[in-house]
């Protein structure tokens, strides 16, 4: 009797564990849908909002790392990176903490770009079916043909709709000319904080720690990632400007907090206002270090040297790439990329390509721009 | 003495009697891997170590060293590795001055070293600081307090027969005029300086940078086998260690 009861109990247990497995599977799929991608070596990534940058960094921004962007002193190109990153998080419905040196930091959210294919539209299309959507899409957006082709390929090729969707949704292309929908911004768990005229960093630090305490690190559990975006941390209009040691120790404590939570912190800073030694300290504290440089409008020499110069808005340099559980540094094939606006709306990163110098050195056009000596070498070969 | 994969050229270059080892690196060529190698070597053969970790949490060292064949969790459990998690240092003792916190930290280190001494084993003991620049940040820029702490640690190592101190410092922070007050004294007290630098031609896939090893304590009994003072060679970091080789001798 007891054995039978135990047997049925076991059966019930088995069934319940089966159903729980199913539910956990859906949970995990929804968690990946919320913008976390698992990589090798136990790494988990969130998207930077620029698909090319994700690819370059080997999957995206590493969860638990601090990403620092060195700003260009003349142009606000770092905002492109920051906006795309934040918009991607908002689209994924991830909690977000934004701090910037402005009176109304919430107003900055109004400048976030909208995804070219927002996930909601995607879901609606899937519900209606491909045939019906093709009509509807074609009527209202005739211009995005290339994007639509890719979509059809996906739908014809595979029936694993879930997989494809996850892949597509991990990083979106963003249309810089279209603002993000209001309801997304209001419905979110978004905190904003002004760093202008604030005398010390303790408030920001407290906000960060309460924010991060809601996102404990769990290995293998449901992943809910958070984002911290801090714009121009050491800008002169901040009240704590000049307190170099406070800022460095803030970054240090932020780094250790982020390390033990499911979040990514992106900090942009105008490095030219820092002294040399502090600038190096900041760079050492970064897990992933990027720098961005605008290019002057009419630099004739550069225009001659590089192909596609007209579309470029700046250069992105990758100094350091975050690594989990490894001591081997990531060596990229090229560390400088050109930042371009495709069709004046979405950001793409490309390897630098040197323009052919003249007819005889044609083959050298494909070589990367960072080593100009290789061009000379190939000229000598001829 | 050194195991294979532990870096032949590096161990050849390091004189065995070095008390204070200073590892210098920069943004382009991080030298954390040298610390990992030295930590593995310190724990090999029954030695003990105290790791003052300001840069990384324990699981990072654990996972990295595990790939190199050294189980830190086990060493920690058996009491041979004393791990000080100082990521939040000085943390709770915010009320007191930084000098007090550093004094307490020193006392903790001293207790560990003394315990090792009274156990009567003649094995080596290594105190490792990763890294001293962050200790300076924790001290809010008071380099004097950090130097005091360092001085105490150096005295501690000189009291004991087989004790050494390994310090990582980011050299490029102190390259400008305004921040030399920590680097120069550290170089002065060092018996051995290991400096990592990037290649001038930029990073390559098979050469990650170059190391220069300078033996300063050139007493006769400390003289390395070949009696060389300065060594220069290239390195490539791998998951299970590092390769060291002379320029151009690789292929």
Automatic annotation (TrEMBL), chain A:
Could you tell me which InterPro entries the record lists for this protein?
A: Elongator_complex_protein_4, P-loop_NTPase
Show the coiled coil region(s).
none
Q: What is its main location?
A: cytoplasm
Protein's UniProt name: Elongator complex protein 4
Record key words, sorted: Cytoplasm, Nucleus, tRNA processing
State the similarity comment.
Belongs to the ELP4 family.
Which example biological process does GO assign this protein?
regulation of auxin mediated signaling pathway
Q: Where in the cell is it found?
A: Cytoplasm; Nucleus
Sequence segments annotated as region (Disordered): 355-382
Name the CDD domains for this protein: Elp4 (cd19494)
Q: What is the protein's species of origin?
A: Brachypodium distachyon (Purple false brome)
Q: Report biased composition (Low complexity) as residue ranges.
A: 359-382
User: What's a single GO CC term here?
Assistant: nucleus
Pathway-wise, it operates in: tRNA modification; 5-methoxycarbonylmethyl-2-thiouridine-tRNA biosynthesis
TrEMBL record, chain B:
Q: Which InterPro entries match?
A: ELP6, P-loop_NTPase
Q: Pathway, per Swiss-Prot/TrEMBL?
A: tRNA modification; 5-methoxycarbonylmethyl-2-thiouridine-tRNA biosynthesis
GO BP: auxin polar transport; negative regulation of anthocyanin metabolic process; positive regulation of cell population proliferation; regulation of leaf development; response to oxidative stress; root morphogenesis; shoot system morphogenesis; tRNA wobble uridine modification
A GO cellular-component term linked to this record: elongator holoenzyme complex
Give the family this protein belongs to, as stated in its UniProt record.
Belongs to the ELP6 family.
Designated name of the protein = Elongator complex protein 6
């Amino acid at each position: 009797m007891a054995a039978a009861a135990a047997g049925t109990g076991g059966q019930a247990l088995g069934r319940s564990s089966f159903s729980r497995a199913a539910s956990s599977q859906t949970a995990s799929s929804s968690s990946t849908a919320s913008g976390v991608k698992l990589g090798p070596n136990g790494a988990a990534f969130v998207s930077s909002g620029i698909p090319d940058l994700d690819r370059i960094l080997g999957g995206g921004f590493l969860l638990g790392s601090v990403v620092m962007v060195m700003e260009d002193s003349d142009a606000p190109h770092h905002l492109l990176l920051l906006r795309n990153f934040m918009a991607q998080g908002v689209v994924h419905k991830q909690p977000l903490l934004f701090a910037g040196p402005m009176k109304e930091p919430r107003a900055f959210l109004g400048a976030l770009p909208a995804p070219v294919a927002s996930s909601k539209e995607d879901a609606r299309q899937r519900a209606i079916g491909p045939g019906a959507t093709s009509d509807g899409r074609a009527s209202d957006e005739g211009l995005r043909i290339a994007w639509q082709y890719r979509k059809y390929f996906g739908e014809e090729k595979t029936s694993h709709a879930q997989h494809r969707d996850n892949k597509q949704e991990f990083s979106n292309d963003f249309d810089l000319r279209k603002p993000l929908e209001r309801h997304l911004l209001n419905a979110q768990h978004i905190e904003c904080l002004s760093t202008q005229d604030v005398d010390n960093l303790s408030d920001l630090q407290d906000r960060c720690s309460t924010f991060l305490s809601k996102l404990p690190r769990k290995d293998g559990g449901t992943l809910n990632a958070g984002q911290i975006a801090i714009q121009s941390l050491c800008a002169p209009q901040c009240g704590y400007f000049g307190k170099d040691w406070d800022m460095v120790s803030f970054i240090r404590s932020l780094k250790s907090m982020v390390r033990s939570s499911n979040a990514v912190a992106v900090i942009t800073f105008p490095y030219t206002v820092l002294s040399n030694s502090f600038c190096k300290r900041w760079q050492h504290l970064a897990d992933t270090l990027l720098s961005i440089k605008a290019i002057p409008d009419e630099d004739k020499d550069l225009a001659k040297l590089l192909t596609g110069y007209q579309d470029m808005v700046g250069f992105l340099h990758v100094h350091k790439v975050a690594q989990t559980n490894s001591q081997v540094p990531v060596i990229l094939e090229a560390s400088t990329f050109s930042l371009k606006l495709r069709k004046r709306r979405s950001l793409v990163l490309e390897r630098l390509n040197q323009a052919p110098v003249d007819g005889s050195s044609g083959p050298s056009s494909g070589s990367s721009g960072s080593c100009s000596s290789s061009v000379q070498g190939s000229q000598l070969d001829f | 003495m050194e195991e294979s994969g532990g870096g032949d050229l590096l161990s050849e270059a390091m004189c065995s009697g070095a008390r204070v080892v200073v590892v210098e690196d920069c943004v382009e060529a991080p030298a954390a891997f040298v610390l990992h190698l030295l930590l593995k070597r310190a724990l090999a053969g029954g030695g003990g170590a105290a790791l003052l970790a300001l840069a990384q949490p324990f699981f990072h060292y654990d996972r990295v060293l595990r790939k190199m064949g050294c189980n830190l969790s086990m060493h920690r459990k058996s009491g041979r590795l004393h791990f000080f998690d100082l990521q939040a240092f000085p943390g709770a003792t915010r009320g007191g001055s930084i000098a007090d916190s550093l004094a307490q930290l020193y006392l903790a280190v001293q207790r560990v070293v003394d315990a090792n001494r009274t156990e009567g084993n003649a094995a080596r003991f290594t105190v490792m600081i990763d890294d001293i620049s962050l200790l300076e940040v924790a001290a809010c820029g008071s380099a004097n307090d950090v130097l005091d702490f360092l001085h105490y640690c150096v005295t501690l190592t000189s009291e004991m027969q087989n004790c050494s101190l390994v310090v990582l410092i980011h050299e490029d922070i102190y390259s400008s005029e305004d921040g030399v007050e920590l680097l120069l004294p550290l170089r002065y007290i060092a018996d051995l300086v290991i400096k990592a630098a990037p290649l001038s031609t930029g990073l390559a896939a098979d050469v990650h940078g170059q190391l220069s090893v300078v033996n300063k304590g050139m007493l006769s009994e400390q003289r390395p086998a070949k009696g060389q003072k300065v060594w220069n060679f290239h390195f490539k970091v791998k998951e299970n260690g590092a390769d060291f080789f002379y320029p151009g001798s690789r292929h």
